[in-house]
């Protein structure tokens, strides 16, 4: 049947939705409560054999668009549409259906539509309106649950309930069900942070799911583990970098480009979304679903599949933690959402108007829908950016009430109600200049009073560089804070932000050359350091977190290939990472940097020379691209590259760098170089923490932590912790500097070490398994863990 034959508008049902909206807005105690009740009615929803659609459209009210010019647009492909094809031209049948409206809300109800499922494509939809010149305009659905062609294209009607009914972890959630209220998730013992596009060769959620299915089978059958297995194992939780739709290419053709049509049909050029992004350049629209770039099949079911494989992991279920980014929107968000969503520009793009009750309710509804894919926890990015302007005091205030609404939300999966575990990244008073000194990293913890609310700790925040001499003693005051109040902090120095910042450090600073022979070795060991990890897992309180790209000794950086206007400037800022992450051999590998080589940068030296000039010229010309190319063309001897530089060529080079770096950062590239001694040690260390979950607590009166004195040109930390049942742990770690004299760690004058019974259970690589106790010389990045009781 054609779309025209099967789609029937149910005007009575639409009118009932509008009337319910009317009732809620008029009779609710507050406007926010009204919009909280309306938000679940928004978006495209399958209900029985029909579907309903709701849109918040204050812009249509302001522009006085009459009801007779507003319609629901529905499109159905007239022929095959393959979501795993790179490009195709498809003719769509199109119809316009009436809507019911109350003030700033529009509703439609339709029977006969096709809803998408894992094995079939659904109809596409948007709200459209006609102006006085008979020009048509679209209002996209920010609460859509399937966006095969991104947040800037019509959405697909999707049968979410069917997807959830087929989930493979129903028994896991049923086992959490309680009679006395929602289940409350507490913290895991440790976390593995993953960027999906660089975590496997396939770069999708489906390929990551297959990786964990492989691990499950090997663990369940007791097969030997190789280094690739070991870097994924030993974690209680997996935290994905944001999986919501991100920005699109600023110029060029879009993923959905209409080639022509009329009221009954339209031909569309469809391109499979292929942007690369580190995950945080969000546009807010579409936050309730999954970025199509991450979907091998184009079906959002892949996120449910991933949650299921974690929850069904043998020996112990793993928690899934999703990263929610509501603290800002990229400027592209202005293309997808009405202006009422935004509170004004900021350094990332746009602030959101958290005090607008409709915006507030829609954001929370987006969170509810995303977490219902099956997440056990939520990490909130940039919570210090959730601010509103207080006109009475003429200052920005933190919206802690909204943060509490986020962490207080009750989810429902497989009939089980629960409250997820929450982690907030909050460095307030950032961006105040003294924020690194004045931030307590406890504002949300203390403000909410929930014993399970966590924040990122000070050593986890962006500006940490553990490969600069003096770093560890300079952070001693923060370490002391961690020991006393860090039980609800995320700990560890390697994550997506710290590793990125590390690649931006000037290599002429006082770098700890004892970490490696080359800059690449130094950077890799700094963020996958045996002694640092030992300190984090065997001594420090809190919940340790590792970044997969760091533990895999893979590369990482600011990856985003969508920029046109500022793309060259972004690459100029990232150019220094060439010095840290790419040596001559790595560049020469045929699979690496193919695009840049094709542009004329055949060797690393060619590219390095170009990158020596580009950042300086960006600065001195105040990013005047025309001036930059004139100066580049005047360099003697001439630079390698396209021969004659122009603005277009610069932009092509910038795009090539981002695309080549994205490929270069994939974990698959480092598999063959993984060190079994290091990966095996790190897995043993993680299993040690999981066997001793009491270490999460703050240090008590009987515990000890300090550095050995006198310093004598090295920093050596010693930590003693006393646990339940007489359990004792002692760790000694060499953090930086020259070698120690020969000494016996168990003979140090530390209260609690006295007596016999200690056994050495963990040794960093380089210390043989034959060492049990007694005199030893420790060098940079070496350490020991002893246990008793």
Brief overview:
The chain has 789 residues and is of the alpha/beta class. Helices cover 31% and strands 21% of the residues.
Q: How does this model look, in words?
A:
- The structure is a single chain.
- This protein folds into 4 domains: 3-165, Immunoglobulins (Immunoglobulin-like, Sandwich); 184-248 and 287-551, Alpha-Beta Barrel (TIM Barrel); 567-664, no CATH class; 696-788, Immunoglobulin-like (Sandwich), CATH 2.60.40.
- It is globular, with a radius of gyration of 28 Å.
- By secondary structure, the protein is of the alpha/beta class.
- An 8-stranded parallel β-barrel has the order 12-13-16-19-24-25-26-27. Strands 4, 5, 8, 9, 10, 14 and 15 form a 7-stranded antiparallel beta sheet that branches. Strands 1, 2, 3, 6 and 7 form a 5-stranded antiparallel beta sheet that branches.
- The longest helix has 18 residues, at 647-664.
- The mean pLDDT is 97.
- The N and C termini lie far apart (74 Å).
- InterPro entries: GH (IPR017853), GHL5 (IPR029457).
């Amino acid at each position: 049947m054609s779309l025209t034959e099967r789609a029937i508008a149910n005007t009575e049902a639409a009118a009932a939705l509008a009337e319910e909206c009317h009732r809620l807005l008029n009779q609710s105690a507050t406007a926010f409560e009204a919009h909280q009740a309306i938000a679940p009615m928004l978006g495209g929803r399958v209900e029985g054999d029909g579907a309903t659609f709701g849109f918040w459209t204050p812009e249509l009210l302001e522009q006085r668009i009459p009801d007779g010019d507003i319609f629901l647009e529905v499109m159905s492909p007239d022929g095959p549409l393959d979501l795993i094809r790179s490009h195709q031209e498809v003719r769509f049948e199109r119809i316009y259906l009436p809507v019911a409206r109350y003030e700033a809300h529009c509703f439609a109800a339709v029977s006969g539509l096709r809803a998408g499922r894992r094995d079939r494509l659904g109809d596409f939809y948007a709200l459209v309106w006609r102006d006085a010149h008979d020009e048509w305009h679209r209002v996209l659905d920010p609460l859509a649950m399937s966006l095969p062609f991104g947040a800037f294209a019509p959405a697909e009607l999707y049968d979410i309930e069917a997807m959830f009914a087929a989930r493979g972890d129903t028994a896991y959630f049923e086992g959490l069900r309680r009679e006395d209220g929602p289940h409350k998730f507490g913290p895991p013992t440790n976390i593995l942070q993953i960027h999906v596009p660089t975590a496997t060769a396939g770069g999708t959620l489906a390929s990551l799911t297959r990786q964990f299915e492989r691990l499950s089978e090997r663990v369940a059958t007791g097969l030997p583990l190789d280094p690739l297995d070991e870097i994924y194992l030993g974690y209680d939780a997996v935290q994905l970098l944001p999986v919501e739709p991100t920005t699109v290419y600023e110029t060029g053709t879009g993923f959905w480009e209409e080639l022509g049509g009329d009221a009954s049909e339209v031909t569309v050029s469809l391109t499979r979304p292929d942007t690369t992004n580190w995950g945080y350049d969000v546009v807010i629209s579409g936050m309730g679903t999954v970025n199509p770039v991450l979907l091998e099949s184009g079906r959002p079911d892949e996120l449910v599949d991933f949650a299921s494989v974690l929850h069904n992991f043998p020996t112990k279920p793993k928690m899934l933690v999703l990263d929610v980014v509501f603290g800002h929107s990229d400027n592209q968000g202005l293309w997808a959402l009405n202006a009422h969503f935004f509170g004004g520009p900021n350094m990332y793009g746009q602030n959101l108007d958290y005090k607008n009750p409709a915006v507030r309710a829609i954001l929370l509804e987006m969170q509810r829908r995303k977490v219902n894919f099956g997440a056990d926890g939520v990490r909130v990015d940039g919570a210090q950016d959730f601010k509103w302007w207080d006109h009475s005091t003429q200052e920005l205030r933190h919206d802690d009430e909204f943060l509490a609404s986020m962490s207080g939300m009750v989810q429902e999966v497989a009939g089980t109600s629960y409250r997820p575990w929450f982690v907030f990244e909050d460095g307030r008073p950032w961006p105040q200049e003294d924020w690194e000194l004045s931030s307590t990293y406890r504002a949300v913890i203390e403000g909410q009073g929930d014993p399970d609310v966590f924040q990122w700790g000070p050593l986890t925040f962006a500006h940490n560089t553990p490969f600069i001499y003096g770093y560890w003693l300079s952070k001693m005051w923060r370490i002391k804070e961690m020991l006393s109040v860090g039980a609800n902090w995320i700990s560890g120095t390697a994550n997506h932000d710290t590793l990125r910042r590390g690649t931006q450090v000037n290599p002429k600073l006082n770098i700890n050359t004892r970490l490696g022979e080359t800059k690449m070795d130094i950077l890799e060991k700094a963020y996958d350091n045996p002694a640092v990890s030992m300190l984090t897992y065997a001594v420090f309180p809190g919940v340790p977190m590792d970044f997969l790209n760091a533990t895999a000794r893979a590369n990482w950086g600011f990856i985003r290939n969508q920029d046109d206007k500022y793309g060259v400037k972004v690459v100029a800022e990232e150019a220094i990472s060439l010095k840290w992450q790419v040596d001559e051999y790595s560049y020469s590998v045929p699979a690496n940097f193919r695009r840049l080589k094709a542009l004329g940068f055949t060797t690393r030296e060619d590219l390095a020379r170009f990158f020596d000039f580009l950042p300086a010229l960006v600065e001195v010309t105040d990013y005047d691209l025309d001036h930059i190319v004139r100066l580049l063309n005047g360099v003697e001897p001439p630079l390698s590259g396209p021969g004659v530089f122009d603005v277009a060529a610069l932009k092509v080079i910038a795009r090539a760098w981002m695309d080549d770096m994205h490929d270069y950062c994939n974990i698959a590239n480092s598999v063959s170089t993984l060190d079994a001694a290091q990966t095996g040690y790190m897995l043993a260390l993680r299993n040690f923490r999981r066997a001793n979950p009491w270490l999460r607590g703050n240090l008590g009166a009987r515990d000890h932590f300090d550095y050995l004195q006198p310093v004598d040109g090295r920093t050596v930390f010693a930590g003693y912790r006393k646990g339940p049942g007489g359990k004792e742990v002692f760790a000694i770690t060499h953090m930086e500097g020259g070698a120690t004299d020969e000494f016996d760690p168990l003979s140090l004058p530390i209260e609690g070490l006295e007596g016999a019974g200690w056994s050495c259970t963990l040794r960093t690589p380089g210390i043989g398994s034959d060492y049990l106790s007694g005199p030893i010389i420790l060098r940079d990045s070496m350490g020991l863990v002893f246990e008793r009781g």
